[in-house]
Amino acid sequence: MPKIARRPLLAMAPAILATPVLAQPAIAQPATLHPAWPSRPVRLIVPFPPGQAADLFGRLVADELSKRWPQRVVVENRSGGAGALGMEAGARSAPDGYTLVVGTSGTLGVNPSVMAQLPYDAERDFVAITNIFTLPLVLVAHPATGPADFAAFVARAKENPGAQNYASAGPGTAQHMAMEMLAHRAGLKLTHVPYRGSGPAMADLIAGNVPLMMDSLASALPQVQSGRARALAVTSKARPPQLAATPTIAESGLPGYEALGWSGLVAPAGTPPEIVAKINADAVAILRDPAVAARMLELGGFPDPGTPAEFGAFIRAEIAKWRQVAREAGIRLDS
User: Do 10 and 127 sit in the same domain of this protein?
Assistant: First the structure.
């Protein structure tokens, strides 16, 4: 298992500002670029709507890179198809360093595991640059219409198989797969209500139109803190400090359960290695910065940068993990 996957990120949170986030050195920044890169604005494709974790942290990194480079990094949200439309746009872009993509646990980990007809190849169409963050997911409920706690959720679902609806950011996303893994292991039959992004899904949960949702900690935290949503359980092995009073799913009756969301930077395959090296060096420096790390923790994420080789190995491990989950739960999204 790659080092990124083994790192106890939640346990690191209290000390994350006092110690370097990455123990291993990043790739050295090259002395010359190909040629004088960047000489025009760089596009960063986020394959989901504004407001999701991939967008929040992608924009944070884009803003910081814009401060370091002589050209701006412009975020372009291209949502649809569980992130497939944005990933396809990135895969078909010129490999010249002027198009970057925020790849996620859904688009690079889950989609290749459950979709046979993807318009992109997660392993061949992109070159890995660095992971940006990992974060737990949170099972949240409407304060009035949803269950009071995780035990009540399980009891309600078992009493009325198939009658318990839950929302997600879309079919094939990490939120969807984490919930299906939960349902399979707990022996529950749930009804999935997919949305085009966690923002619209959360809006419907707050309005009382859907009682449950699996969402990223980053997206759900403001709603939980405001009382508009109730956190029932988190998907990490340890409780995140932002929700220290919320139990994990593992400690709530499903030992060993864990599902993390993540997002990282990738570029079209064939992007010059010297440009990949520079982006990696600058992004790692940004993610190691105490002020940036503090901001990410406030948003609910845990900085987790690494080398291109580490991130590439991590993506392959995630694909293998979710393929096993898909087989266990019998999930195919395009069959």
Answer: yes
Strands 302-303 and 126-141: antiparallel
CA 179, CA 93: separation in Å to the nearest integer?
33
Residues of the chain with pLDDT under 50: 1-31, 335
Mean pLDDT of all residues belonging to the chain: 88
Q: Are 246 and 146 contained in the same domain?
A: yes
Give the pairing type, strands 126-141 and 230-234.
antiparallel
Reference 136, options 181, 178, 165; nearest CA is: 178
Residue 335 lies in a domain: no
Tell which residue, 147, 170, 163, 300, has the closest CA to residue 230: 147
- Locate the DSSP E strands across the chain: 42-46, 73-77, 99-104, 126-141, 165-168, 191-194, 212-216, 230-234, 260-268, 302-303
Same domain, 164 and 129: no
Is residue 334 included in any domain, yes or no?
A: no
pLDDT of residue 325: 82
Q: How does pLDDT run across 294-316, given as a tens digit for each residue?
A: 999 888 789 999 999 999 999 99
pLDDT at 95: 98
Q: Which of 93, 94, 96, 100 is nearest to 58 (CA)?
A: 100
Tokens 């949803």, residue? 146
**Distance separating the N- and C-terminal Cα atoms of the chain:** 30
β partners of residue 101: 45, 266
pTM for this model (two decimals): 0.76
Residue 84, domain extent: 3-135+260-329
Is 158 a domain residue? yes
